[in-house]
Specification:
The protein has 491 residues and is mostly beta strands. Helices cover 4% and strands 41% of the residues. It contains three helices and 32 strands. β1 and β2 form a beta hairpin. The N terminus is likely disordered. The protein binds CU-O-CU linkage (C2O) and copper (II) ion (2 copies). CU-O-CU linkage (C2O) binds next to β6 and β31.
Length: 491
């Protein structure tokens, strides 16, 4: 690993303002950025004026100059009885991200963005990962209900050269999951450098809904990145990650037929929150982190923080061949849909999708607070303490349902956080006594918490699995400096 300087400089006497990157080397401190940078006057200008990817930069080429690929679905090495077996190497790979330039990334299986695993509810998956990288790694299935030994606990690592088989029982409803590195202190850099991929659980119970499927069911991972003029990936200040990638390509175009599509969006950026708008067609939200919503919802804009997923249907049948529809974030375009041809479409969006189970009765209430200690090198805290793998912060009896109030304790500093819980999905009950937002709908495992605000959620540990699982802020430069804690599920 790089030996990082940990100096923190706060600019202008304004704590909510700029954090400066020291001139030499990469500062981990500088990777911790205040919230709302994109909405504060000076930084907004800085953001838009000097670092925003506009497509005008000669080294990156114009927007919509490359097609968006769809990550390849991995074929099992072997399928027997009720199990599909896969093997994936974790290795460096030279890939083309910016037109005409080669970038060295970390990869699953040699492809930036990883192969997609398509699993099925009720059918077991075994994945053997081989670490061909020079640093310890591990793999976490985000959103997965899996045994503790296969959860990718931060200290449960694959050393260089080692292989390891993870077991995913898939005893859960259909949902858009993803897998990524979770190695203690190095997860942020590893994920940034490319260790993320899709893991989709298809649920036979969804088939009768006749949602768009096959080639019309398209996963799209969104993230940002910073490159130098030679195309080398730069791991530094998150505010300088000015290139927006959709399935690993900068502001690409994607050709669609004039019919309905299901798009599964994942935000796999370390820190960026997207607020997505689509010009020229409706976004019909059908799912969130934990899969389908009870009913479709028409959305004008959708917030998607680090780690979150949203599923939408877009019906291009009202568009004509030649139409171009831009999906944009407040910082600029993300992706353009180019309508090419009319085509028959027998899919639909039924008025009822998947009911949510009633919330069970609960007696346990817990408080969780996320904050920074900025007295020296920045340290991430949960309930006042940095992560300690030898300490069980909460002991939870399996089969119980609990209400957690999670507070962003950095109101005065202005840092944005979010909250991610391993093992189970939860429901958002309220936000500082106000009703949840549209972005909070359905089953969630990751939820944004603005500075100084709190969220109440209910999680049910109806769990077949015992042992240790973590929960943390999914701004990965926060969790990697300690904003993480763990629970122990006991009989
Ligand atoms: Cu997506 Cu604990 O992580
Ligand atoms: Cu997770
Ligand atoms: Cu955070």
């Amino acid at each position: 690993m790089l030996n990082r300087r940990k100096a923190l400089t706060l600019g202008g006497g304004l704590l909510g303002g700029a954090l400066f990157l020291p001139a030499c080397g990469t500062s981990q401190a500088a990777m911790i950025r205040p919230a709302g940078h994109a909405t504060q006057g000076t930084l907004l200008q800085q953001h838009h004026g000097s670092v925003l990817y506009t497509g005008a930069d000669a080294s990156t080429g114009a927007a919509y100059s490359v097609p968006m690929p769809v990550p390849q679905v991995l074929t099992p090495l072997e399928s027997k009885d009720n199990t599909d077996i896969y093997r994936i190497a974790i290795e460096q790979a030279n890939v083309q991200i910016l037109p005409g330039l080669t970038t060295q990334m970390l990869s699953y299986g040699g492809r930036f963005g990883g192969p997609t695993i398509r699993a099925r509810t009720g059918r077991r998956v075994l994945v053997t990962y081989q670490n061909r990288h020079t640093e310890p790694v591990n793999v976490h299935l985000h959103g997965g209900h899996v045994p503790a030994a296969s959860d990718g606990h931060p200290t449960d690592l694959l050393q260089p050269g080692q292989s390891r088989t993870y077991e995913y029982p898939n005893r859960q409803q259909g949902a858009t999951l993803w897998y990524h590195d979770h190695s203690h202190h190095t997860e942020a850099e590893h994920v940034y450098r490319g260790l993320h991929g899709f893991y989709l659980i298809e649920d036979p119970a969804e088939a009768s809904l006749r949602l768009p499927d096959g080639e019309f069911d398209v996963p799209i991972m969104l993230r940002d990145a910073q490159f130098d003029e030679r195309g080398t990936l730069v791991y530094g200040d998150p505010r300088l990650r000015n290139v927006i990638l959709a399935n690993g390509k900068p502001q690409p175009y994607f050709q669609v037929a004039a019919r309905k599509y299901r798009f599964r969006f994942l935000n796999c950026a370390n820190e960026r929150t997207f607020r997505l708008r689509l010009g020229g067609a409706e976004m019909i939200q059908i799912g969130s982190d934990g899969g389908l919503l009870p009913a479709p919802v028409i959305r004008s804009d959708i917030g998607l923080g680090p780690g979150e997923r949203t599923e939408i249907v877009v019906d291009f049948s009202r568009n004509k061949p030649g139409d171009q529809l831009v999906l944009a974030d407040e910082t600029g375009p993300v992706l353009r849909f180019d309508v090419t041809r009319p085509v028959a479409d027998h899919s639909r969006v039924p008025a009822a999708l998947r009911p949510l189970a009633a919330l069970p009765a609960t007696k346990t209430n817990r408080e969780v607070s996320l904050s920074f200690d900025l007295s020296g090198d920045p340290v991430g805290l949960v309930n006042g303490r940095p992560y300690d793998p030898d300490r069980d912060d909460f002991v939870i009896r399996r089969g119980t349902s609990e209400i957690w109030r999670v507070t962003n304790g950095d109101g005065s500093f202005g840092f944005e956080h979010n909250f991610h819980l391993h093992l189970v999905q939860f429901r958002i009950l309220d936000r500082d006594s106000q009703p949840p937002t549209l972005d909070d709908a359905g089953l969630k495992d990751t939820v944004p918490i603005p500075a100084g605000k709190s969220v109440r959620l209910q999680a049910t540990f109806d769990s077949d699995y015992l042992g240790r699982y973590v929960y943390h802020c999914h701004f990965l430069e926060h969790s990697s400096v300690g904003m993480m804690a763990q629970m122990k599920i006991v009989p």
